Each structure stands twice: as C-alpha cells, then as structure tokens.
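Supplementary Methods, section 5.1.

A reviewer requested that the exact input to the structure prediction be made available. We therefore reproduce it here, unchanged from the version used in the analyses.
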Amino acid sequence: MRLKLLLFVCLAIALPLTVAAKERIIPVPSADHPGNVFLEGEEVVILLPEGWDGAWQAVDYDGKLVAKGHGSGRAQLGPLPVGYYEVQHPAKESQPPISLCVLARLAMPTPAGSPIGCDVGMSWFSTPSNMSALAGLCTLAGLNWVRDRLSWAEMEQVPFAYLHASRYDVAADAQSKAGLQVLQVNHNTPQWAKRMDGRMPPDLRHAYHFYRNIAARWKGKVLAFEPWNEADVSFGNCTGSEIAVWQKATYWGLKAGNPTITVCLQPFAIRRPTTLADFHANQAWPYFDTYNFHNYEDFDKYAAVFADHRAVSAGRPLWVTETCRPVQWSGETKLQEPSRADLRVQAERLVKTFALSIYEGASVVFYFFLPHYVEGQIQFGLLRPDLTPRPAFAALAAVGRLLADARPAGKLQTDQPHLQVFAFHAKPDGAERLVLVAWADKEVAPLRLPQKPVAVFNLLGRAVPPETELNIGSAPWFIVLEKESKTALSLQPPPEAPPRLAGEPSPLVLQLLLPRKRVLLEESAYRIGSGKVERLPIFLYNFGPKDVACRLTVKGPADWQLQLPQKASVAAGGRTEMSLELTPPEKAEALQTILIEADGGAAGRCLLSFRLKPEQ
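The structure derived from this sequence is encoded token-by-token as follows.
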C-alpha cells in the first residue's frame, strides 16, 4: 500500500515534562456528589436505593457507629470528619452497604510537578455520561497525572481515515478540562496494518502516520504518550532491539504531530536482563523524554527493580505508569468485593507503594487502578462500579494532599529493624514541609522524633494529636515536620540518578524484520541456522524532510561472514530494503551480537543492534 506521508520533523530538545493541561483551581465537589465523596465540613446526605426502608446506621473505617436514623429515600449523616464510612441496613445483612468518604479540602491547586498519578483507563472503563464525574473525583484526590487507554484499531479502521468523534475525544476533553495532565497509551494495531504473526505493524510508516495525527488531534489535552504498552511480554513479545526500533519511529510521529508532547518510553512490564541489555545497546535514549516501566513486585524488591531500570534509563526521569500490590475479592461474584480485612490491606499498600516508589526516584507514579477492575480473583479498583469509594480511595486522596510535589529526602535510620520511615520534601496543605511516611513491617514499633511534629495524619488523611513519640503499626502515618527538620534526622540519602547520556535523535531508523517464530524471547534474540547462508531483511527508514544517502557498516563476530551494501539512499518519508547476508561457522551455538550503522551526514547517524543464536 502506498503511503502518503506529510512529514513535519521537529528537533525539540528541551521540553517541559509537567505543563498543566489547564490553569488549575482548588476543586470542589459537584452538587450531586458523585461517588458519595464529600469534603470536610459539608453536610453528608446519602441517597438510599429503592426498596431500602426501616433503620439505617453509619459506621467509620474501624466499624464505630457515627450516625443512625430511620426512613427511606435518603440518610442524613451531618458533617463528618475526614475518613471512610459505610451506611448499613442493620436488619438486612444481605443488603450491601453504601460507601462514602470525606476528604480534606485542598489548600492549594495540585502542583504541576506533583508525582501523584493514577491509571484511570477512562476511555475503556467509563461511559461518556460519567467521565466528567470521574475526572472530578481525580481532582478532589489531588491527582496530578492520569493515564488513559487508546485503541488504534478503533480509531483508524480504514487506512488514513480517523473517527470524527469518539469516546477517546470525550475522555480527553473531560480530563483536560478538569485540569488533569493526561498520559495516553496504545497497544493494538488495525488489522489492515499488522502482519498475521505479530501485534505491531511491520511497516513503521503506518505507526508514524498514526501517532503524528493523534498527537496533533489532542494537542494541549493529551500531554504525554506511551507509543505501546508492555511490548516485552504478551502485548508484543518483542526483543529489546525491536522495542528500541519501535520507539525511534514513533518518537518522530509524535513530535511531528505535537513538538511539545512528552514522548515516553513504551513501558517495560518486567525487568528481564537480556531484554533491557538488548534495548540499551540500541542507544534509543534520544528518542524518549521519560523512561517508563511497570512494577508489581513485593516491597522488599523495590530497590532491585528500580536499580535495574535506572541502569538503562540514560538519566531520563523515571515514570512508573502501573504499580500496586493488589488484593483478592471474595464473597458474591456479582460484587467482586474484597473482604473488610483486605480492603484495609489495599489502603495500607497504596500508601506504601507511593512512598517507596518516590523514594527510589520515580518522578511520577501511576497507581493501578482507579475504576472497578478485576483479573481473575484479583480486584484492582479503588472505586466500585457506581463510583462509590473503597477505603483505598481515601488513602489515595491523603497521598495526593500530603505528598503533593514530593521529592525524596532520605530514609530514616533507626534501631527498630521493622520500622520503615521515608522522608520527603513536599507541600502538604500548601506549605513547604518535611513529610515522613512511617509504618512497621511486623509488630508495632515506637518512633521517637527530635521535636514535636507540625501535624500527624493517619493513612486516610485524618489529623491525630501530634506527639514526639508515636507507636507505628502496619497502617502508615503521615508525619509533618518543619522543612528545616532534615538536619535533626539521621537520613540515608535516596538513590542517585544516573548521569544523563548525550545524543541527538536521527530521522534515520534501521529495522530487522524476521518472523515471530524465530524470536527467543527469554534471550532477546533470534534463532538462525549455523554453517549456512542466512539472508536477513533490513529496512532503512527516513522520517526526515529530505532525501538521504547513507554509508553503511556492519560488525559481528570475527569468524562470521557478513555482507551488507556499503551505500543506500532513502527518500524523505520512505524506506529502502536491503539484505544482510551472513554465514555463521559450523556448530556455532553461542549468542552473538550484530551491529549495523548508517551515517547520513547532516541527517545524523543511526544504529541497529540485534542478537542472533545459531542452532543446529
């Protein structure tokens, strides 16, 4: 199929990573309080479902009675302190309780640099009628970034013809109008563009064209884009080399459509060493503004997870765009609700997830997942299908408010082996402070402070009496100190960011295209024969505005025969196919790396590194 590409190449180097979608204001709930989310000081009035009659009672997070009444239609609870609550029907145990929460009022608009985000998946898990309500809940919780989902296959069902109006447009409007910064991600391809044995299109010009158009379409609304999702596992089953090639091509499409967009790295799902090394060898760092990955590992492995990704991040900001330690649901299948004990665990883990991730160096953390969502027996959602909250939503709001604009200051060194205390420079309730997030892994442990805190809050964001000695259990506490208090604490510094590697993106991109059956995923390599000639198809793309003539070189093992044309020309917006002819020696079995470089003069240099494993 002939591609009619309009190429507008922009070499934007220094780009803002936190540009607010809209001037922010301090959010307030809408009059109908979707999701039963209220602010402190408001009269709490809950609509009762049809058929609910007789007595009702309201209990807090700990099961303590806070209000009761009799009647139908609505329950008036009056003003309530910050926290999570349930309205129950004492005579009908089979009647699911109605949940609500009361949040503290934000003292300032959420800072544009705050690391607190959430995967909302609004386009896929909400209807257009409730998207504005869901966006409003995000702002009340103090979220800065939200992550959405896009289907390329749905948006471009016919080549170069895009839907004029879609749920994705409604979601982008709702979230940007609320002042949220939106990250978008896609991980599918239209049937007309992909080959039968893979998810990604073999012709990278199709991807360039799509991302250029979609970036331009939502300019000013969608501020960041991940051009694929988890290509290292089942969403792509790609080698590190293939991921790097995809990143380079889609970078140019996104920047051509919107020069100010933040081009994120397609996020790694896991930290497979072979894939990361193969990716890094392709020197893709000029083609991503942020290094993105996902993390679902246990808390005691966070240091290793971040260290592995930090090592290949090239000094770019780390974005964790999916992370949590989920709980399971139990009981009725139609509800898919975790037990009361697991709801508490979910809330506690959420706070720990943010604290540990920010301490390890994450610039933005997207908790997975805001809406009701299950995989098998696992319940990820912080909200129920009717948008009413689980306790962890109140914990998310506490994080959004008390860790606003948080940056790691260090980890407190104590004589309590099970006590975890992380310090952050942050702006809780609008003031620059030092905020400690503290919990105990096992038994309750005492935390002694050098001075009385400015304030102390529980994991749901409710203030408790500040004391110089606190007994810390599994539920995290937020302890607010004067910002100068760091000098009085014994803090282990957070991990250092690696140096930023230099490099300029080139519009030239090299691609190896082999059948999926030849991929050795665990080794991030391709299977080839030994002792016989192999001809590998190599494509040279030009995403620049001018035709380019290139000099080509190929390097590999000394005992391999390698032949590649020394010169190649490629038109603007075009691609040129060539063949790499190679012959491994007899009985060669060791994994080897092949490196191809193209020097396009003023168009820059590009390289392609890939791994081959000869088999008998």
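The first helix runs from residue 122 to 125. These observations are discussed further in the main text.
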